[in-house]
Amino acid sequence: MLKKVEIQKLLNESLQTGADFAEIFIEDTESSMIRVISGDVTSIDRGNIYGAGVRLIQGVDEVYGFTNHVTYESILGVVKNLRASFSGELTKTIPLGDKKPYKNNIKKPMNSVSVKEKSEVLQALSNQIKNYDKRIVQAVSLLLEIEQNVLIANSEGIYQDDKRTYSRVHMTAVAQENGVMQHAAESPGRYMGFEIFDAIDAKTYANQVAESAITLLSADDMTAQVMPVVLHNAFGGVIFHEACGHPLEATSVAKGLSPFVGKLGQKVGSDLVTAYDDGDVEGAWGRLSYDDEGKPTQKNLLIEKGVLKGYLIDYRNARKMKMDTTGSGRRQSYKYSPTSRMNSTYIAPGKDKFEDIIRDTKYGLFAKKLGGGAVDPATGEFNFAVQEGYMIEDGKLTRPVRGAMLIGHGKDVLFKIDKVSDNLEFGQGMCGSISGSIPVDVGQPTIRVSSMTVGGSGGKK
Amino acid sequence: MMYQDWIDLGLKKGITDLEVFAVRNKSMKLSVYQNKLDQHVQSDVESITIRGIYENKLSTVRFENLSDAHVDQLLDQLMANAKALTVVEPAIIYEGSKSYPEIKDELFDFGSVPVPQKIDLLKNLEQQILANPFVTQVQTAVYQEIDTETTLVNSKGLHLSRHNTYAYVYAEGVFQKEDDIKTAYDIKLAKSFNEFDVKQMAEETIRKGVAKLGGKSIASGEYPVVFSNEMFGEILEVFSSIFSGEAAYRNMTFLKDKVNQQIAGKDVNLIDDPLHPDAHFKTGFDDEGVACSKRYVVENGVFKGFNHNLKTATIFKEEPTGNGFRGGISTTNFYLEPQENDFDTLISDIKDGVFITDLVGLHAGVKTISGEFNLQASGFKIKDGKIDHPVKMIVISGNFFEAIKHVKGIGADLKFGLSGVGSPSVYIESLMIGGEA
């Protein structure tokens, strides 16, 4: 690792030729993945991401360089290459300040628990899935552990380290009967070490994936139609993530590409919708103490009672938009320049009761488990998949359906939310965008969208 | 040499056999926005993967911190991890194939072209796209050049290497007509700088974008569907994993007991060809050092067998197929063999159908195990054998295993994507479309 005085010298060197901002991001990440298939520990792999990224900005123009050779000479080489892009007067750096403490309440870090102990927990989960029903033909459990150590220093005096600890448990069940093969998966994750198993009820998840795979065997293919959709809590929040979260990121807004450009203070959704992006939810998969630009994370109000209140803004886009940063600068690793990203994004709880929402729906789709989704922020068109759904007929959940795909438009879907219940939960995912793939939470209570286009392969003659 | 030192260190620790797989990636990327250089990225990163066999079991470590102390620590970790595996599966470090195909690829030095010339290329591309009255902006115009050197060294005395250089240019335009906003892009990968044709790329982007404007949804129902070469290629890419020997071994593919059975229409030939002349990348050996060769995965609709790495080949008592990549199994250049129909002939007998030119959300709307796909799509209506109005905001649904049994026509327009998967346009007898009520 580099000494503080060396980093200061590198930052000073960076501003010699006209750049007015310089940042150095040094990363050392260790990860481990243990995979259990049908009760057998089949692979244990170890990974390491190690390197430094240097960013120089002049006005709003940016140059970025990175290397896995973390020495003063090597990084100085990167700096000299990068600064050649600029010409202009020297800007003085603000001397590096002191590191502030980051929250470090991890109880069981990766290396404090033996591989054997971890493997045994996973073997029990895999066996539990496998033994749920004789139609389960495959049961996979997997533990991903990541410890990301970062140091962020910039020419405005920020000198901040952070240690991020993530654990995620993947469980997959494959069921087969009469030539039909279906699978279901759950992947709870936390900003925690091995104590994740104290925080989540892994056995219940294991039963759920097995049950879900069995249910899907006999489910009908969804028939394409336009209908009301009740989106269940937790991962149902993917609708807000895709339809509104991405278009509220400064990466879209600064270029004028999002349907939410210029709409601050205006109605963008129904009165029932209040939404936040929170960078510091205790123990949450999407949390950070400091963002990847060294700024403390914060809770950002995005929408209040249907009125647009804020965007997610990183350092560089803050300059473009002439607004403040929101602690939202994130990147997958030193191989990416940071930009505005989400952390834990959710629709706040309302007053409706889950049972009442179902009872109040004459005909519709109950999307119990959601899969991933996608959005084109420029057009606002988004989609996301339903892993496990049920038809609602006369206010009751009737038969299971599979393969439903929901599509919509960001600028009108929020207006169509006509019920918001009180059962807020989070779900975990990896979010991909221009600064790479990062852990995020999506979240919501159960909501109802009055009308959506639903696709599916059912109803074929 | 550093790699040999690591191997010697591992052997000294008691690791039976080990292999170093090193990738050095040098890259330079430029993006232009509103006639200005927006971002300039330079990088040089070396990543190492060491696979080792200890107590007859194989474990892997990947790292970028190349210091001796760190490697020493990781080798200990590798041994502990191998020890903790509860199942003994075939673990092989390869002595090498008898011979390897010769790759005659140009190694153009993209660094020899001055950066301002590359920036000008992007500015030029942006301006030419902006010249169209429906274009409101070019949201990204990117140039990236990549130089990759790969080295494989193992304790069985194998030493292989390859070197590859290429660059690509990508631009995405935003098109608007009244309230309707659409995006369209073109991407071109080149092995030397003067292959880039800005005029052609701008025209292609504009052609795609303008054609999409004014699209509407269509009534939900069953339609004959033609996929563009690019889109069927994307579908093939997602489903390529079902042909993996690992999936067969793990009971994770529908094809498990279907070797030598008819799984697709008689016209369907799916080929894995590491040396295909039209593909962007050619490779003579896989990541385990096995020589690559051309192979029919599906021939005249009959499934010929799974793609194997060293492990699954041993399990199934077959020869390795040279498909061991990144610790698992994947295809090299995998494509659907084209036929003679030009596009107009392909769609000529469709009275009321859909031509799909865009698919969104392939990571979420596809279930490779069951074969189901449900995808947001857009494209064009086909009416009385001709392309009609643009169609947007629809969902296309079907099952891959069913679809390949009902291929009614295959075009001549084979095109390889950047991922190495290629396809011509494909006409499927019928699929479900979700649209308006």
Task: Give an overview of the whole structure.
- With 461 residues, chain A is α+β, with helices and mostly antiparallel strands.
- Chain A folds into 2 domains: 4-217, PmbA/TldD superfamily (PmbA/TldD fold, 2-Layer Sandwich); 221-457, no CATH class.
- Chain A is built from 10 helices and 23 strands.
- Chain A has helices spanning 4-14, 72-83, 115-130, 196-199, 202-217, 238-245, 250-253, 315-321, 354-359, 410-413, and strands at residues 21-37, 40-58, 61-67, 136-154, 159-177, 180-186, 189-190, 220-221, 223-231, 275-278, 299-304, 307-308, 329-330, 339-340, 344-347, 363-376, 381-393, 396-402, 405-409, 417-420, 425-433, 436-444, 447-457.
- The longest helix of chain A is centred in the first third of the chain and has 16 residues, at 115-130.
- The mean pLDDT of chain A is 96.
- Chain B is an alpha+beta fold.
- Helices cover 21% and strands 39% of the residues of chain B.
- Chain B is built from 9 helices and 21 strands.
- Chain B has helices spanning 2-13, 68-84, 115-130, 198-212, 229-239, 245-249, 310-315, 343-347, 400-403; strands spanning 17-33, 36-54, 57-63, 135-154, 159-177, 180-190, 221-227, 270-272, 295-299, 302-303, 324-325, 328-329, 334-336, 352-360, 366-367, 372-383, 386-399, 407-410, 415-416, 421-423, 426-434.
- Chain B has a 6-stranded antiparallel β-sheet.
- In chain B, helix 1 packs across helix 2.
- The termini of chain B are far apart.
- The mean pLDDT of chain B is 96.
- The chains are: A alpha+beta (461), B alpha+beta (437).
- At the A-B interface, strand 2, strand 3, helix 2, helix 3 and strand 6 of A face strand 2, strand 3, helix 2, strand 6 and strand 16 of B.
